[in-house]
Amino acid sequence: MPGHKRQPSIEFLELMGVVKENGNEQTSLPPLYTPLSYDYVLVAKTIDNQEREAFKKQTEYIEELEKKNLKVTKIIDDDLVFYGIQGPKAIFEKYRYLLKVSDACNWSSDQNAVPLSTRIRIIHFILNHTPIRSGEGLRDLMKMKVFEARFCLHEKKKQRELKECWARWTACLQGQPITAVRNYFGEKVALYFLWLGWYTYLLIPPAIIGVIVFLYGLAFFNSSPLIKEVCESDTVMCPLCDKGCKVWQLSDTCTYAKVSLLFDNNGTVLFAMFMAVWATLFLEFWKRHRASYVCEWKVSDWCEEEEELILEIVNNVNCEPKEYKHSYLRSTLVLICVTAMILVIIGLTHALVVFRVIAAVLLAEGSWEFLSKYSNSGAMMLGAVLHYLIITVMTRINRIVAMKLCELEKTRSFATTEKSFTVKMFTFQFFTYFSSLFYVAFFLGSWLCRWLKRRRIQKLQRKCAHCYLKDESQAKYGAELCDNCKLRDWLSNYRLNNVDSFSLFNEFLEMVIQFSFTTIFVAAFPLAPLLALINNIIEIRLDAIKMVTLERRMVPKKTNDIGVWTDVLEAIGVLAVIANGLVIGVSSDFIPRLVYRYRFGPCANGTATDIDCMVGYINNTLSVARMDDQSIGNEFSGSQMITSSGLNVSSCRYKDYRSNEDYSLTPQFWLILAVRFAFVILFEHVVVICKFIAAWFVPSAPMQVKNDRLFDKLKRLKEELSSFEV
Question: Where does residue 673 rank: exposed (0-12), middle (13-18), buried (19+ CB within 10 A)?
Fold first, then answer.
């Protein structure tokens, strides 16, 4: 009714420490602590007399926690000091109430107790927002080594259940218990595995089609007139350099021609178009798939900003929110720095290409006959090694630069910092991996396989090394800790591998980079989806085993989406259209073959012939250079025109469309160039239109999910109305 205000409920008064009894206000009982388990553990080194300042800060921080009614249990073991932290029920009930009355958040009415994952998240926030008198928080104290480690504890029962049904190799072909993962690790980790599982599942169609495209090229491997024309040719090709190089036989490239035809055939074009549309369908169906789980978890209307405000109030009822600020100067500086960093990465790529060219020349002119014979292969291998070193070094530099730029921005919250860091780090990594796009696509086609294999080996090595340390530690401490189960549990968690706020980011980055390989390079390597599928089946179990048994428990974080990664994936989908269109239209031989078939070949103008329409294509692409021409004769010495069999030739062939009389570009060259540009424009427009149609055709959420959300809101509004007091 107008003029009436909603009265605070008895439940809210109880949490604030006040109850009403017979019309009088009385102070409630002291806060109670949940008997389930400890919510968090801090670990510090035992401090001697020379480190009294660190001991003072350690004691002061623990006192600040106790002022907030956090129960702290101290246990000393040799050179380690453990602080078990347990939050009072009042804190969790206060959070539960504020979430219930929140506008953008939702709390299930049938959920009476606050789950441990939520308690851990609340205590984690309080610990990070509890400064000592000098203004230093827990992150500062960790950097100063006042505290050695911090972590939340694994729950043995649930950990064992997840290990049996999920985190084991024999479950590779089984589904994932996503809701159980969410209850244990929080929504953020659960949505990562949900996305990874969905990505892996939808890789099955492109993997099958990619194999079919590969087999299509393999079926015409030996019968193709293009292969026969190269392998059976006696054509003499011009030297590849000014000095030192000699003429060579076209048939020397027989193996290369066969391999090229496997990955550059007519089926590749249709497959590239399919993958561009597939990337859009994948994202649209992912939104539907995510919506089903998000609705089930009651976080559809979850708002990150309001969640942060609630946690701030729970931590300090007199808190003041951080205001939004924007500085055009800082944004300009960040943009300039990002641009400069990208230019540096591109410059390194150019240096890599120059290095390969110089290495090929030096190896060809060297005194070692073996290296001289395989100069191109040697230069390719050296380029691959240098490329790997550049990626390894730049990955570390990219991380440092991205963090510094985030500090320069002075973002409002950690969540904003995480989003900004994600965009910058991925951008740097994308250019680090893909600025040498064509080099990797055409000369390092098997690099992806080696990279994936190396990642698997590194993870298995870390796993084995850790298990060794784990067994050794148990042998050392097992006997003396048998009487103290609490300390034994804390020690076992302490010995696990450390996790931080960006542990999940690293997993996402690895998979999104792989997604980029799968979509952008599909025109050059149709088997990429198959390799990605095999990799992901292994990746899911590796990550599950790592998180459940080998690493400390991640702090459960709440969310209803994969965040900025959705925007990154959409950008990759657009880039995939552009890249595949350019690779097919500009770099591959698809357009020249198409023009020859219908304009210059034996089947041109619909002429019926009994021979293959591509017969004579290779010869058509080669121009003639005559030694009796002064402009050509001055370029090469007489010794360079002697074949390996000792025959002295007066002319040689080179790949180009030029006149044999004056070496001017032929009309066929300009026709092919025009068709190339027309194809790129047509390809991109057609695929983009298909992407928009697919995005419009597929609803972002199933109708059942929308109806469930509608009835849930109606139920909540009715419950609120029934509790309204006039």
Answer: middle
